[in-house]
Amino acid sequence: MKVNNNIPANFYGLLSGIFWGLSGVLLALLLKNHTLSSYFMIPIIIAFMNDLISFGYMTFFLVYKKKHKEIFSIFKDKKNLIIVLAAIFGGPIGMSFYILAIKYIGIGYTATISALYPAVGALISFIILKDRIHYIGLFGLLLAIVCTMILGYSASTQIVSGWIGFLFAFLCALGWGSEVVISSYGMNKNIPSDIAYFIRQLSSSLGYFILIIVFIHSFPGVAYIFSDVKLSTLLFITSLAATVSYLFYYRAIEKLLPIRAMALNITYSVWAVIFAYLIIDEPISINLLLTCVGVSLGSFLTAVNPRDIKKLRLDLK
C-alpha cells in the first residue's frame, strides 16, 4: 500500500479530530439548557436526533455525488450487514453513553476517557481475532489505563456523580472500540467509505428509534427543541460537525494508513478541552491536559502494529 504522504492527507485526519471535538462541545452546550436537562432521557433523544440529521446530510451528499444507485443497492448486498452491526455498537451504545457521560462529567473528561477506544479496540481484536499485541502496545495500554484511572479519580472528587459519568465514558469507549473492530472487517469487504458511513447512520437511527419506542415510549424534549430556533439551529450545526468529522476521518483512512489516520483523529480529546474552554468556559487544569495527552498517546501505542510501522517506513522511502 503506497502512502500518500502529503499535507492535505494528514490535514484530513487532523480536521476529523477538530470537528469531532467541536461536535462534543456543541452537544455539551445543548445539554446545558435547563429545560432540556429536566428530561431524564434527553441524552438518548439528542443522540437519536444527531444521527438522524446526519443521515439526512449523508443522503443529500450521496445524491449530490450522483451515487443514488449505490443507496438502493445496499439493501441487496448481505455484506453490508456487518456495517449494521458496527453501527449498533457505535451509535445506540457508544454515542448514547458518550452524551450521558457529557451530562455527568462534562466534555473535557468525557472526550479524554472515550479516547481509550483505540486501545479497547486493539484489546477486543486481540481477544476475538487473536490479533497479537506487541510489547509497545502493552505499554500503551498500561499508560492509557493508568491515566484514565487518575482522570477518573479526579472527576469523582470534583464532580457530582463523577464515577457514574466515568463509567458511561468507558462504556462509550467500549462501544466505539467494538465498532472499530467490526467496521474494519466490513471495510475490508470493499465497502466504500461514504456508503459505509451512510449505512452506519441509517442503521444507528433505526436502532435508536426502536430503543426509544420500546423503552421510553415517547420522544421527550423534541417538540421543545424544534420550537426554539436557537436550540434547533444548534442541533443541526452539531450534527453537521459530526458528519464532516466522519467524512474527513474516512478520507484520511483512504489517503493514509489507518494507524496514522487514527493517531490524528484521537486528538479530538485535546481539541474538545480547548473548545470547551473557549465556547462554554469549562476550566482547563494541568491534570486534565496531561492525562488527556497520556490517554491519547497510550491509545495510539496500543493500536500500533510494529509491522505497520515497518511497512510505513518502507512506503515513505
Architecture blueprint of SSEs:
Elements: H1 7-31, H2 34-37, H3 42-64, H4 68-73, H5 81-114, H6 117-128, H7 135-158, H8 162-187, H9 193-215, H10 222-227, H11 229-255, H12 258-265, H13 268-279, H14 286-303, H15 306-316
Helix pairs in contact: 1-5, 1-11, 1-12, 1-13, 3-5, 3-9, 3-11, 5-7, 5-8, 5-9, 5-13, 5-14, 6-8, 6-14, 7-14, 11-12
Strand content: under 5%
- Round the Cα radius of gyration to an integer and report it: 19 Å
- Give the mean pLDDT: 80
Largest sheet: none
- Which structural class matches the secondary elements? mainly alpha
Query: Judging from the principal axes of the Cα atoms, what is the shape?
Result: globular
Following the backbone from N to C, one meets helices and strands in this order, namely HHHHHHHHHHHHHHH
Distance between the termini: 13 Å
Task: Report the count of strand segments.
Answer: 0
- The helix content, as a percent range, equals over 70%
Low-pLDDT sequence parts = none
Number of helices: 15
Domain EamA: 9-151, 164-302
Keywords: Cell membrane, Membrane, Transmembrane, Transmembrane helix
Main location: membrane
Family: Belongs to the drug/metabolite transporter (DMT) superfamily. 10 TMS drug/metabolite exporter (DME) (TC 2.A.7.3) family.
